[in-house]
Amino acid sequence: MSAASAKRLVFAVPGDLDTPTGGYGYDRRLIAELRAAGWSVDVLSLGDGFPWPDDTTRASAVAMLDAVAAGTPVIVDGLAFGALPELAATVCHRVPVVALVHHPLALEAGVSPAQAEALQRSERAALAGARAVIVTSPATARSVAADYGVAPDRIAVAVPGTDRPARFLPDKVDSSRHLAGDDRLGGDDRPANLISVGSLVPRKGYDVLIEALARLRAVDWRLVIVGPQDRDPMTAAAVTASIAARGLGDRVTLAGTVSADRLAALYAEADLFVSASLFEGYGMAFAEATSFGLPVVGTTGGAIPDTVPPGAGILVPPGDVAALASALRDVIATPGTRARLAAAARAAAETLPRWTDTARIVAATLDAVMRDEPTTEPRKTAGAGTDP
Description:
By secondary structure, this protein is α/β, with parallel strands linked by helices. It is built from 15 helices and twelve strands. It has helices at 22-36, 55-66, 78-81, 113-127, 138-148, 175-180, 206-214, 233-245, 260-269, 284-291, 304-307, 321-333, 335-349, 355-370, 376-380; strands at residues 8-13, 40-45, 74-77, 97-101, 132-135, 155-157, 192-197, 221-226, 252-256, 272-274, 296-299, 313-316.
């Protein structure tokens, strides 16, 4: 490979890179950081409909990847890669392909057992051809090794970075006041401000969250849900109907997609982050909330226990309405609990990996791939503090 092309990379994504989800957000920031580090990154859109592309989209995606110049490293987002097992016998023999797995496709909520089996079989076959596999959490690393047959020395963990907030939590979160006995998160007569972030899709468990909050009518709270509502219109409609049926329309706001600045402002205004997600390959919103020093109430689904710093949150089993309601009641109504969680979150915020760390690990993986070396070293220095 010539010196002129040594830093060239093709980054292949399904659909529109600007789609407002955590996975695409990871891709966008990674591309930006790699470019800042000197890589020339060509973004290649593989078409829509993944992980269930039609025959035309599938053929077009394979053809576009097959047109990449021999020897040029290619990162393929896992939403597309896992649905293209034919790459293992074609493109992967021409160019060094790196799979970026946010979480295994078969673990998406709402798929039937037959669909899950088909997705796992497809993704396992595709991953067999990847030169390396980048995952976003130690939990996902364990999964692709144990369930998808990927050798550990081909796996690199590059957890999502966080941005250090321009402002930390406002003074309303004051542990000394909480410990003195104030009975609301703000220490005054206002309601507790809750925020939940994520697309309105089945995996995010908003039905569970609304049901849990419906059991807390006697507690003074307000919830803002931030996330696109067009990813699964049926789920969005069901969530809207559930809010209305339980008489929570004056307490729950569906904010939809918001700008980065607006999201930062909502985090800064919040007292508590809550998510009923059934599974996360990492959980970027959990890390973002921690970066603002917010206490967390969430679940143990997937990588969430790896993502939420010790002592910064209360995690309950996915789908357990009673447990989620109990945890929320405890954090909202008990000053000592929320003060302890907030203090742990503020301390952890200073140690969270940054996006430059994420890009450094990915760049090291690409360099190793081009030298045809194992990825063991970047896997061990993934910045999460835990080895998969």
